[in-house]
Amino acid sequence: MKSVADKIAPLLRQWSGPLTAELVQQPAEFGLGKIPVRLQPDSTTTMVCGFCSTGCGLNVHLRDGKAINLSAAADYPVNLGMACPKGWEALTPLAAPDRATTPLLREDRGELKPTDWDTALQVFTLRMKAIQDQHGAESVAWIGTGQITNEELAFLGALGKFGMGMIHGDGNTRQCMATAVTAYKESFGFDAPPYTFKDFEESDVIVLIGSNLCIAHPIMWQRVLMNRHQPEIIVIDPRRTETAMAATQHYAIKPKSDLVLLYGLAKILIERGWINREFIAKNTAGFKEFEKFLCSSRGNEASSEESGIDQSLLTSAATSFDERTVAAATGLSVEQLHRFAETIHRGKRVSFWWTMGVNQGHEATRTAQAIINLALMTGNIGRPGTGANSITGQCNAMGSRLFSNTTNLLGGHDFLNDAHRQKVAGILGIDVGRIPSENSWA
């Protein structure tokens, strides 16, 4: 009677079949760890991962023109040869059984049926033109995404607004980031987060607000782990997330108390002289009014009226920003507030990072502005390892916000600025009248 080993041995030594060419490069030579023949590419192209806002570079390996495998691009400055599980699975949707491979046209009965591209484009064009002829060019709008390239975004916006006469359109990236967009525009005059991923490696204090970075943006978290300065990692999040578990300080504040906490920290920093008044005087405007709003001994109601700050800045959770009131509103102790403020003060390169936990949260625009104010008043902006840094949700969110002709004319220009419209019209060689003089309402 043959043993199990005797039965298996011939299979391992065979020259053809599933245990040879299918699994190793050269039949019967046991190339363990090598690329199987069926996955060995004949060419390679590159792509940017579209799953999150990191935008990792990936090499896509092709065989007979089809994507069969991928690897992380070692020379790409964003991910430095790393990829997270989402990136490694970037080709999986190609094999999805419900993936559309041809245009689908809805018939009169309401069913979607496959059709060819010529028919699809003709039907789309005729129906779109009929709607605009009947209801006006501005009756049609579009919504885009941050998962396509700058060139595609620019063409979409130009086709819609300059070609088809639309006024309204937007990207879902600005919808989910509208609060950060507004905060940046009001604070800096321009929608542009002031950071690079290298700042994760240069900070000695990293403050994460409403961000579960190691799960939502794993490669950014890897950049944090590459930091050689042994940074203090502070997480503000009601939940004990994976990132909070790895933090050196976790402040599990009560929901909707972010703004009160940030104002309270600002007041402590001011009262203890832990702000950079030289930087403030040289680079900011309106600080005296902000200081009066926070610190007036007459209370916030009086100071807000005197400074011209909207009374709605005050929340029902706190009527003043003294440390005991802030502690009660946030669920933190006074000692925790002091430790948080002192950590910011002692840091030489402090960076503040936030994402959807702020952007789609309570009083989000003011919360983002309060984060920016902390960076400005401590001089933690404009240097490596610093900044008030909004993390987006899609890999080309900024391209969508700046190049798709939604609320920004091409390249960060302004639809409301006649000189900007003239400039863009001249570059494109079109009549300036084709460029709307108002922003999208979306």
Describe this structure in words.
Among the domains are: about 35-95, N-terminal domain of TfIIb, CATH 2.20.25; about 195-385, Dimethylsulfoxide Reductase, domain 2. It contains 19 helices and 12 strands. The chain has helices at about 5-15, 85-90, 115-135, 150-165, 170-190, 200, 215, 220-225, 240-245, 260-270, 275-285, 285-295, 300-305, 325-330, 335-345, 355-360, 365-375, 395-405, 420-430, and strands at about 45-50, 55-65, 65-70, 105, 110-115, 140-145, 170, 205-210, 230-235, 250, 350-355, 385-390. The longest helix is centred in the N-terminal third of the chain and has 19 residues, at about 115-135. It is globular and about 70 Å long.
SSE layout:
Elements: H1 4-13, E1 43-48, E2 57-63, E3 66-72, H2 85-88, E4 104-106, E5 112-114, H3 117-135, E6 142-144, H4 150-163, E7 169-171, H5 172-188, H6 199-202, E8 205-209, H7 213-216, H8 218-225, E9 232-236, H9 242-246, E10 249-251, H10 258-271, H11 277-283, H12 287-295, H13 300-307, H14 323-330, H15 334-346, E11 350-354, H16 356-359, H17 364-377, E12 387-390, H18 397-403, H19 418-428
Parallel strand pairs: 6-7, 8-9, 8-11, 9-10, 11-12
Antiparallel strand pairs: 1-2, 2-3, 4-5
